[in-house]
Design a protein that fits this description.
The protein has 231 residues and is an alpha+beta fold. It is built from eight helices and six strands; from the N terminus they run H-H-H-H-E-E-H-H-E-H-E-E-H-E. It has a four-stranded antiparallel sheet. A two-stranded antiparallel sheet has the order 1-2.
Length: 231
């Protein structure tokens, strides 16, 4: 009985097709739901559709191979991986604060497509284990990341100043309070005018763990600061 069920689930049958596509919808939807709640790009529907499409593509490759005996079942799956790479690359953006956005979105789309391929090939164990690892990475480890960002000795920030002199005063104040500055990148709205507004990204290094709220309270109150935000 067990051997018969195993064979049924791994052959391309109507029942196995239903199970594989259902699992693709379920696993892709669960991974995308967390992003949907946080209003992030590529949420519930995107993850579900990517996982479903890749599962079907893999089954098509297997079906064509069994039907003709000539085609390579992995070819279609390889094209899916390449196509998802282009799709994911389109979600990666560099903001005007020189901050890279969308890396997790791109990686998540690629990984959920691989889960779909595994389900389409009938590799249920690999798909479920990968799903569990992805869910842990996305849902649980973000609390660790949040903790590290909340209390750290190194805090990257983006600041807008009224003029260049205010940036200089900011750096002097930081140095006098045992705060080192690194990775400074400055952009002036008008390069020929010294009195024009200035934006800068930098990393503040403190001798002890400091929260971003403390940085805003102390450094955000300095004269000439128009905007301050964490990176």
């Amino acid at each position: 009985m067990t051997d018969r069920l195993y064979q049924t689930l791994h052959d391309i049958t109507f029942l196995s097709i239903l199970i594989r596509l259902f699992l693709a919808m379920l696993l892709g939807g669960i991974l995308g739901y967390g992003r949907e709640k946080k209003h992030l790009p590529a949420g519930f529907r995107t993850y579900m559709v990517v996982c479903l499409g890749s599962a079907l593509a893999m089954m098509v490759g297997i079906y064509v191979t069994e039907l003709t005996g000539a085609a390579d079942a992995s070819r279609i799956g390889a094209q899916v991986v390449s196509g998802i790479s282009f799709l994911g690359a389109g979600t990666i953006l560099v903001t005007r604060q020189n901050q890279v956005k969308g890396l997790t979105t791109a990686a998540g789309l690629w990984a959920v497509a691989c889960i779909g391929l595994a389900l389409g090939a009938g590799f249920y164990a690999g798909a479920l284990i990968c799903f569990a690892a992805l869910w842990i990475s996305i849902q649980i480890l973000r609390f660790v990341d949040k903790r590290l960002r909340t209390h750290s000795k190194n805090i990257p920030i983006y600041v807008e100043f009224t003029k260049v002199a205010d940036l200089s005063a900011f750096m002097t104040y930081a140095g006098c309070n045992n705060c080192a500055i690194s990775n400074l990148e400055m952009t002036r709205s008008n390069p020929t005018d010294q009195n024009t507004s200035v934006s800068a990204t930098m990393v503040l290094h403190f001798p002890e763990a400091t929260s971003y709220a403390q940085v805003v309270e102390v450094y955000g109150a300095l004269d000439g600061i128009l905007l301050m935000k964490a990176l």
